[in-house]
Design a protein that fits this description.
The complex is a heterodimer of chains A (about 270) and B (about 210). Chain A is α/β, with parallel strands linked by helices and about 270 residues long. Chain A has helices at about 1-25, 35-45, 65-80, 95-110, 125-135, 135-140, 155, 175-185, 200-210, 220-230, 235-270; strands at about 50-55, 85-90, 115-120, 165-170, 190-195, 215. In chain A, helix 1 (about 1-25) packs antiparallel against helix 11, helix 3 (about 65-80) runs parallel beside helix 10 (about 220-230) and helix 5 runs parallel beside helix 8 (about 175-185). The longest helix of chain A has about 40 residues, at about 235-270. Chain B has three domains: about 1-65, no CATH class; about 70-115, no CATH class; about 125-205, no CATH class. Chain B is built from eight helices and no strands. In chain B, helix 1 packs across helix 2 (about 25-65), helix 1 (about 5-20) crosses helix 8 (about 160-195) and helix 6 (about 130-150) packs across helix 8 (about 160-195). The chains are: A alpha/beta (about 270), B mainly alpha (about 210).
Amino acid sequence: MYKFTQQWLIWGLLSIVVLLPLVKPIGLPVGYAAETEAAFKFIDNLPKGSITMMVCEVAPSNAGEIWPAAIAIARHHLEKGHKVVISTFIPDGIMYSLELGKLLEKEYGAKYGEDYIVLPYVAGRETALAAVADNIRGVYKEDQFKQDLNNLPLWTRIQSIKDFAVVSCYTSSDDTWWLVRHIWGKYQVPCISSTVSVATPDSLTYYKNGQLVGMLGGVRGAAYYEQRLGKPGMATKSMDAQSAGHIYLLVLMLIGNVSYWYSRRSQGRRSEG
Amino acid sequence: MKKEGPILIGFLTGSIVITSYFLKSTGLKSISDTVVRWRLIIAAFALALGALNMVRLHGKNIHHKGRNWQYSVVFLVFFLPYLAIGLIRGSNSAQYQYVWKSLYQPASATMYSMTLFYMTNAVWRAFRIRNLHAGILMFTGAAVMLGQIGIGTAISPLIPRFSSWLLDTVNTAGIRAITIGGSLGIVSLGLRVILGLERSYMSDGGN
C-alpha cells in the first residue's frame, strides 16, 4: 500500500508539473545553443531559390520533440524563398510530410511542384538513403500523389543530390550517421540534423567534426530555432514543460538521496546498538 | 549450390558496392546503383512478408486459443480493415488519414509518453549515491540536465559551461571511441560476408 501511494504521488506531481506550463506558459529562458545558431545562420544565408531537402523521419512517438523543428525549418526555408523537397524513409513519415506540405501552402501560399514536392516513402532505411544520394532520379519516378515527377517544374532542376543546397533530417534514429556517411561523406552536400534529446550527444560529435553544418537537439534546439526565427510555437511552449519536468526530476534525485543516506545512517545506528 | 549460391551473391554484390565507393568508374557506379536499388525492392517485399507473417501468426493464435488470443483478435480487427483502406484507397485518401490521425497517432504518442513515468521511477530509485561511480553518474546527469534548460544559466553561468564541456569533450571522446570501434566491427563483418566466412545470415547458419 505504501509503495502504491508513493508511486502515485510521484506520478501525480509529475503530471501537474508538466501540464501546468503547457496550460499557462511560464516563459522560462531557452539557453544559447551554438549548434542550432549555426544551423539557423546557414539556412538564413542560403540564396533565394536554393533547393533544399527535408528528410521527414517523424513518427507519433518522436513528434513531440522533432516535429516543431521540422515546422520551424520549413517556415524558414519558405520565408527565405527556398524550394523544399520533402522525403521520408519511414512509413509514418509520409503523414507528416503531407502535413508539412499543407502547412506551407496555408501559411506561405506555396505552390505544389514549384515551391515544394512531397516524395513517396521508400523502404530500406539506410540503403534507401544511400540510393537517393547516389541516384535520386533512379529511385523516384513519381511523387506521393502518383504524378510523373518530370512534369513538376521543381524536379526538372534536380539531377543529383549535389543540386541540393542543404539536406536536413528530423529523426530519433541513426539517420544523422547515414546523412554523414552517404550525403556529406560522398558528395559534400551540407547536412543539418534535428534529433530527439537522447540522440543529441551522439549527433553532436558530427557537428563538432564539421560533418554537420548545424544541429537541433530535442525540444531545446527547436525552441531556440523558433525564437531565432521570431515565431514561437510548439517547442517554445513545450520547453517550459520540459524545464519544469527536469527541475522536478532533480528535486526527486535530491530527496531520494537524502532519504537513502538517512535510512543508511539509521541502519548503522541500529546495528551498532 | 544451396551454400555456394548465397556466398557467391554476397561476394559479387559486396565487392561491386564496396569497389564503386572507392573507384571513380561510371560503369561500376551504374552496376552498384542497380544492386542498391535491388535492396530497396527486397526491403519492400520484406514489409509485405512481415505483414503476411503477422496475419498468419495471430490467425494461428486465435485458432488454437493460444496465450492472450483476445489481443490477436484486436490486432486483426484493426489491421485488416486498415490494410484494405491503404491498398484500395491509398495513403493519401481521407479515410486512411482519418484512421491514422484519430487512432494510430494518439495511441502511439500515448505509448511513448508513458515512458516518462517509468523514467521518473528510475530517477527516484536508481540515482542513489551508493558508491563513487553512482555518484559521478548522478552528478554529471544532473549537470547536463540543468545545462539543457535556461534555469541552469540563471542559477550559475558555470552550469551550462560545465554541461557543454561534458558533452563536447567527455561525451564526444566516448562516442567517437564507440563509433570507431563499431565501424571497424562493421568493416570486418562486411569483409567476412564478402569472403564467405560469415554465414550466419543463411537460414541454417551455413551448416
